[in-house]
Every structure is written in C-alpha cells, then in structure tokens.
Amino acid sequence: MLLNAEAILAHGDTTAAIAQFRQTLTRYPQSFAATMRLAEVHYHIEDYNTAIQYCNIAIDITENFIGKSMEKLQADSTPTPEEIAEEKQKIQRYETDKIGIYHLKGRVRLKQLRRDDAIEEFKNALEIKQNSEVLTDLALTYLEIGLLQDALVLLHQAKFIDSVSYKPYFNLGNVHYKIQNTDSALYYYTITQKKAPNLKWPYLYSGMILTEKKQYYEALDQYSAFIDIDSTNEELYFRRAVLNSEINRWDAALEDWDHVLALNPENAEAWRNKGLSFFRIEAYDSAITAFNKALDIAPNEPFTYINRGYSYYLSNEPEKALQDLNYGLKHLPKYYLGYYFRALTYMQLRKKNKACDDLSKALGLGMKEEEVDEKLMRRCF
C-alpha cells in the first residue's frame, strides 16, 4: 500500500496519494512510515496544522515502539546477547526516526513563524543525537532572531559532525557575508563549491563579493560558473554584462545584454545599457535604436533621453539631440553631464552664448575643467 501511495505521489496526484497513505494508516495504525509521509506531504502543500498533527502521531508511534523494546529487555530476566543487540538496534532506529520527525516539526513551526517552538523541536532532536542538518537549521533560526555568535558555534559543530555535507560551509559563508566578513565568506563559499560543484548560489555570492572588492575578472569567472549551471537566470547575465562593461569588454557586454533581453524583452534598463555599450564602440545608430526600445518601455526615463540626445549629437543631428537633452534636464536639473552635452549641441547649432551658459552650469555643478573639450573651453573662456 505504501509503494502504491508513493507511485501515485510520484505522478503528481497529491490528493489521491494522501488518501492512500491514510488508508494505509487506517489499516496499520502503528505505521510510522505512513504517518511520516503524511506529515511531509502536508508540509509541502503548506497545510501546516495538519502536518503538525501527523508529526505528533509519529512521535507517539516511535515512543510506543521504544517503550515496547525497553519493556521486552526488562521483562526477560535472561535475554541472550543476540536479543539484547536486536532490541537495542530497534531502539536506535526508532530514536533516529524521532530525530527526523522532531526536525520536520521544527521546520513546520518555522513556516508558521513560531520560532520559539521551532527551536524547542530542534533541541528535542539534538537531545537524542547531534545531527548536522538539525544543527544547521537551528543555527539559521538563531540567525533570524539575531543570535549571531550562537549560530556560528552551531554551524562549526555541524561541519565537524558531517564533513561531507556542504550545508554548514555554505551557511557559514552566508553568515560571514551578512556581517561583511567577506574574506571568511569567500573561504567557506570556495569549500562549498568543491563539495557541491553544481550548487549555483555560492558562485553568485562569491561573484558579488569579488565585485565589491573590484576583482572583476575573478567575479566574471564566478558568474560564468553560475551560468554554466543555470543559463536561464536574467540577473546573472545582467551582472556579468555590467562587469564586462566595467572592464571595457564591450562585445562581451553586448552579448550578455542580448541574453538578458532574450529572457526579458521588457527590461528597459538592459536596453539602455545595451545602447550605452553600442555608444562606447561608436555604433551610434545602433545605440539610438536600443535607446528607442528602452523608451518604448519606460517613456519617462530622463537618463535615457540624455543618452540618446548625446548619441544624436555625435551623429550630427543636433535638433533631435536638443529635444532629448531638454527633456532630460527638465527632470534632472542638477546632472552636470546633461548641461555639458547640451553645451556641445548648442555649439554645433552655432548658439555660442547658450553653449557657454550650459558649460558654466556644468562646471558649477561639479564638472572638472580637464573633462571639458578643449575647443569648447577656449571658445567660452
């Protein structure tokens, strides 16, 4: 009956599987396996109250079995060594089952936002035997309520108990990252990558840390490793595109912007950044096309108007440039580059006085003289 219920569940019919597990439990009221599976299924379908009920039943079943084994050992005045070993083995198995059910019950309590109850259940499990996964979940719960040092102690205990599991190392990395101890975070993420090379998140977080440290090439390697695992994540292509732009790898940046837009054609910021990448390789017509796409999606974004306006200026279309720059500066009145671009545009239109007025505004807002075109400076000052 249990196998039939598992087969039904594997085919995705949760309702029928629950009915089959319940039928098993009706026929075999002491079936720990059926009770545990019912608790797990209700947990996964977010029916947490029912999950707790089955957790409690499962605990009662294991305690009943343990009690029977203890009674058998005590009642028989001369048990053979084989009988003693058999009953102790049963008790050990039942205790292991109890650890699992207390652990599950704690996770359910977390979903119910009853953290104190979750901590109690995790501790119940740990009183039976130290367990790496339970220690990790208890540590994460402590972290949620601000008990940082307690969380770190538990995670270190977890990694010593189970040196194979990646989870304590990954969560140690997360904790250290949260408190901005980035060198330690990178250390634990590196270990995690070795233990679980197909786990994508350590590559993301390592990439973010390396970006903060301005170690852009190393960060690119981390993002690329993530993408090798999951090529459908828009955020990773976006991050990699930004890094490629930072180190002037414009062709690589354009390729990444194409990936972002293939995944989300309505990403206006990606269209704008694609335009900026085209701009940097002096492909102004392509830049303008990308800026047009961005403005179709986000028609009121002033930075995009200024970007397109400067591209029009460089394409020798000053009237279009002026129209865009006027709109952008209306909404960004303290953006000195906007005034500088408009100064260049006015000069292209042979409107020297307006050009020099805008250049003065740009310098007054913080633009440095060495950033200004020499010909424009000479004509205005």
TrEMBL record:
Gene3D superfamilies, alphabetized: Tetratricopeptide repeat domain
Pfam families attached to this UniProt entry: TPR_16, TPR_8
Superkingdom, natural source: Bacteria
Keyword Repeat: yes
Keywords noted in UniProt: Repeat, TPR repeat
TPR repeat intervals: 99-132, 234-267, 268-301
InterPro entries, per the entry: TPR-like_helical_dom_sf, TPR_rpt, Ycf3
SUPFAM superfamilies xrefs: TPR-like
Keyword Zinc-finger: no
Protein name per its UniProtKB record: Tetratricopeptide TPR_2 repeat protein
The organism's taxonomic lineage, starting at the top: Bacteria, Pseudomonadati, Bacteroidota, Cytophagia, Cytophagales
